[in-house]
Amino acid sequence: MTEWDIKKLRILRALAEQGTVTATAEALHLTPSAVSQQLTNLARQLGVPLLEARGRRVRLTDAARLVLRHADAVFAQLERADADLAGYLAGDTGEVRIGAFSTAVPALVVPAVAILRETRPGLEVRVRETEAAESYELLSAGAVDLALSLAAHAPTARDTRFSRMVLLEDPLDVALPRDHPLADAPDLRLADLSGEPWIYGGSGPWQEIARTACEAAGFVPEQAHTAAGWTAILAMVEAGMGVALVPRMVSGRASGVAVRVLARDRPTRHVIAATRRGAEASPAVARALDALREAAARRASAAPA
Predict the structure, then answer these.
(1) What SUPFAM superfamilies would the database entry show (predicted)?
(2) Would you say the pTM of this structure is higher than 0.85?
(3) Tens digit of pLDDT for each residue in 29-51?
(4) Is the pLDDT of residue 94 over 90?
(5) How many CA atoms lie within 13 A of 301 on its CB side?
(6) Is 245 a residue whose pLDDT tops 90?
């Protein structure tokens, strides 16, 4: 295969534009002898004559003009490559893969993607709904670049594989049947619901979150029904089968039930973003983190007090 030397091709193109070796040398800050030597070497590499003498001047051969037609396409592609690389280094292009738990996808990830489409349209985001344990396995393996989880579900801060950032404090509200006697009670406290049947997960972190919140309010909740998904939990609350603690990220979309913000002893969970340690400095990942922070800040400012 013919060896193409980009530097020498640029000199040939400059000669075609400037017309003389002397003018080419001045334009490129070279000596005329250096220009002549580089073009002689290029002709030897390509195996075709590039210049022919015409009096005291030289002119391009037909072979040289053929070479330049292809060189122009190469230079144009290199310009596009330079622009793409500059965009990548600025975090304006590239790809970011996000793994997030189910409620974080519509509440934080989708708004962040909308922000990036407006501000960084060349940055592609791929979203994957994951469970907490899976998201950190994928993050460690390099299959995702960002993992969103609850702080309670994440590896400890002593795990040196990951960098963690708090995105959002997500308060827990109470979901009651609409006709519940306390649905409109002023200054509702969690302790006011100590005698109610409760609905929450049968195992895992969410069961622990619900029980811990109730115990902090001074009672052990009676678990009347068990469900893992918010659709099922809210359907049972709507049917009058019990009450439930619901994250603000979910309660804002709840319908058919009365959602009350607790006046005191309000439990809160924390949503965090994690990257492989050091990866947060990647321009594309940094842009995605900025968009997630903005989405979280918008959500927090719009939330009820």
Answers:
(1) Periplasmic binding protein-like II, Winged helix' DNA-binding domain
(2) no
(3) 899 999 999 999 988 988 899 99
(4) no
(5) 6
(6) yes
Neighbouring residues of 124: CB distance < 8 A, sequence distance ≥ 6:
94, 95, 96
Contacts of 83 (CB under 8 A, 6+ apart): none
Whole-angstrom Cα distance, residue 128 to residue 97?
8
Q: What angle do CA 255, 107, 238 make, to 5 degrees?
A: 20
Given a contact cutoff of 8 angstroms between Cβ atoms, the answer to whether 84 and 249 are in contact is no
CB count in 10 Å sphere of residue 44: 11
CB count within 10 Å of CB 149 equals: 26
Write down the residue that tokens 């670049």 correspond to: 145
Q: What is the mean pLDDT of residues 66-94?
A: 77
